[in-house]
TrEMBL record:
<protein>
    <recommendedName>
        <fullName>Bifunctional chorismate mutase/prephenate dehydratase</fullName>
        <ecNumber>4.2.1.51</ecNumber>
        <ecNumber>5.4.99.5</ecNumber>
    </recommendedName>
</protein>
<dbReference type="InterPro" id="IPR018528">
    <property type="entry name" value="Preph_deHydtase_CS"/>
</dbReference>
<dbReference type="InterPro" id="IPR036979">
    <property type="entry name" value="CM_dom_sf"/>
</dbReference>
<dbReference type="Pfam" id="PF01817">
    <property type="entry name" value="CM_2"/>
</dbReference>
<dbReference type="InterPro" id="IPR010957">
    <property type="entry name" value="G/b/e-P-prot_chorismate_mutase"/>
</dbReference>
<keyword id="KW-0413">Isomerase</keyword>
<keyword id="KW-0456">Lyase</keyword>
<comment type="pathway">
    <text>Metabolic intermediate biosynthesis; prephenate biosynthesis; prephenate from chorismate: step 1/1.</text>
</comment>
<comment type="function">
    <text>Catalyzes the Claisen rearrangement of chorismate to prephenate and the decarboxylation/dehydration of prephenate to phenylpyruvate.</text>
</comment>
<dbReference type="GO" id="GO:0046417">
    <property type="term" value="P:chorismate metabolic process"/>
</dbReference>
<keyword id="KW-0057">Aromatic amino acid biosynthesis</keyword>
<dbReference type="GO" id="GO:0004106">
    <property type="term" value="F:chorismate mutase activity"/>
</dbReference>
<dbReference type="InterPro" id="IPR045865">
    <property type="entry name" value="ACT-like_dom_sf"/>
</dbReference>
<comment type="pathway">
    <text>Amino-acid biosynthesis; L-phenylalanine biosynthesis; phenylpyruvate from prephenate: step 1/1.</text>
</comment>
<keyword id="KW-0175">Coiled coil</keyword>
<dbReference type="Pfam" id="PF01842">
    <property type="entry name" value="ACT"/>
</dbReference>
<feature type="domain" description="ACT">
    <location>
        <begin position="294"/>
        <end position="371"/>
    </location>
</feature>
C-alpha cells in the first residue's frame, strides 16, 4: 500500500498501537464504571425489597432492551451482532457482581444446550449439567439453580416432546428463548483416521435428534454403519473416544472435549438447521417491547374444539407463531395444545384474548411471557 503521509512502517504501527492502548484503557475504565452502576442497582434493589422477599437481580426484559439498543445504534465497522455479543458478556460480568447465577442445563458438558446457556447468559455464570430434561426442571424447582435451559424444537426434526410434557406438571415459567444454529460433525479418533479404509468405523453414536438431522448424509456416505442413539451428543463423543471402531456425530465443543477429530464437518441435512431452547425459572418477566407468550391449554375432544379455542386470537388480532398438540395423560385433559403467540400477557389485546380462550377450555396455564431472542 502506498500513502505519502506514511513515514516508516514501524513508526506508523507504533502510533496506531499507542492509540489502541489508550482506547483500551478508556474501555476498561468505562466497563468498570458500568459495573459500579450495576452494583448500585443491586444496592437499590436490596434497599427497597420487603422483609423476607427474595430480591430479583436478573431482569431478562431489561437485558433484551440493552442488546436491541446496542444493535440499533451500531455504526460499524464491527457488525451489530458482534458488538451485541460483546455487550452480552459485559452484562454477564456485571450481573455476576450483583448475583452469581447458577444455570442448570441438559448436560453433560459439551452439549448444544450448554452452548445455548452461554449464548443467552454469557460466560460469567456457573453451568450445571443435568442428566435429563426432567432433572433440569427438578433442579430449578428445588432451588439448586436459578434458571434452567432445555431444548424445545428443531427446525428439521420438530418438537422435543419431553420438554413440552415436563411443563404439564411444573410451576416453572418460561423467562426467555435462545435460537442456536446447529452444526453436526462426523467425529473419529485419530487412530481411525490414519488407518483409513481398513479401519472404517462400524458404528456411529449420537443423540436420536442428531441422527435424524443427518439421516441423508449418513445414507449417502456411510450406508452400512450401525446407528446407535445415546442420551446426548457429548455422551456419543465420549464413547467414540473409548470404544474401538466407533464414530460420533456431535458438535465442535464435544470434539474438543473428548479429543476427537472432525473427519467431515457440517453434515446436517438442512443448511439452516436451528434449535430453539427455553429458559425456565421461577420469576415472571415484564414487558420488553418485543415479546412472546407461551400457553398450555386443554380441551375436550369435541367437533370444532380447536376452532373455537383459537377464534379469540384472530378476533383480537393476536398472531400465533406455533401450535403443538400433545395427547393428554389424564382423563380430564383430552388434548393439550402448546400455543406460542406474539406479545406479552400484560398487553391489553393479549390479556383479552387469553381471558376469552380460558372460558373455552378445560384447563389453561400461561407458561410465561418473555423477550424474543435478540442474538
Ligand atoms: C443492572 C441491572 O441488573 C442486571 C444487569 C443488567 C446489566 O448489566 O445491564 C441488566 C439487567 C439485570 O439482569 C438492572 O436491573 O438494570
Amino acid at each position: 500500500m502506498t500513502n505519502n503521509s506514511f513515514t516508516t512502517e514501524a513508526e506508523e504501527l507504533g502510533k496506531l498501537r499507542d492509540e489502541i492502548d489508550s482506547v483500551d484503557q478508556q474501555i476498561q475504565q468505562l466497563v468498570n464504571q458500568r459495573a459500579q452502576c450495576a452494583q448500585k442497582v443491586a444496592d437499590v434493589k436490596e434497599h427497597f425489597s420487603k422483609p423476607g422477599e427474595s430480591v430479583v437481580f436478573y431482569r431478562p426484559e431489561r437485558e433484551a432492551q440493552v442488546l436491541r439498543r446496542v444493535m440499533e445504534r451500531n455504526q460499524g465497522p464491527l457488525p451489530a451482532e458482534g458488538v451485541a455479543r460483546l455487550f452480552r458478556e459485559i452484562m454477564s460480568q456485571c450481573l455476576a457482581l450483583e448475583e452469581p447465577m447458577k444455570i442448570a442445563y441438559l448436560g453433560p458438558e459439551g452439549t448444544f444446550t450448554q452452548q445455548a446457556a452461554l449464548k443467552h447468559f454469557g460466560h460469567a455464570v456457573e453451568c450445571q449439567g443435568q442428566g435429563s430434561i426432567e432433572d433440569v426442571f427438578r433442579e430449578v424447582e428445588a432451588g439448586g439453580a436459578n434458571f434452567g435451559v432445555v431444548p424445545v424444537e428443531n427446525s428439521t426434526e420438530g418438537v422435543i416432546t419431553h420438554t413440552l410434557d415436563s411443563f404439564v406438571g411444573s410451576n416453572l415459567n418460561i423467562c426467555g428463548e435462545v435460537a442456536l444454529r446447529i452444526h453436526h460433525h462426523f467425529l473419529l479418533k485419530e487412530a481411525l483416521l490414519k488407518k483409513g479404509a481398513v479401519a472404517n468405523p462400524t458404528k456411529v453414536y449420537s443423540h436420536a435428534q442428531s441422527l435424524a438431522q443427518c439421516r441423508q448424509w449418513l445414507d449417502a456416505n456411510w450406508p452400512g454403519i450401525e446407528r446407535i442413539a445415546v442420551s446426548s451428543n457429548a455422551e456419543a463423543a465420549r464413547r467414540a473416544q473409548e470404544e474401538e471402531g466407533a464414530a460420533a456425530i456431535a458438535s465442535e465443543a464435544a470434539a474438543e472435549l473428548y479429543n476427537l477429530n472432525i473427519a467431515t464437518a457440517n453434515i446436517e441435512d438442512m443448511p439452516d438447521n436451528t434449535t430453539r431452547f427455553l429458559i425456565i425459572g421461577k420469576q415472571t418477566t415484564e414487558i420488553s417491547g418485543d415479546d412472546k407468550t407461551s400457553l398450555l391449554v386443554a380441551s375436550k375432544n369435541k367437533p370444532g374444539a380447536l376452532y373455537h379455542l383459537l377464534a379469540p386470537f384472530h378476533e383480537e388480532g393476536v398472531s400465533l407463531t406455533r401450535i403443538e398438540t400433545r395427547p393428554s395423560k389424564s382423563g380430564t385433559w383430552n388434548y393439550i395444545f402448546f400455543i406460542d403467540l406474539e406479545g406479552h400477557q400484560n398487553e391489553e389485546k393479549v390479556a383479552k384474548a387469553m381471558a376469552l380462550v380460558q372460558q373455552q377450555c378445560t384447563d389453561f396455564k400461561c407458561l410465561g411471557s418473555y423477550p424474543k431472542a435478540v442474538l
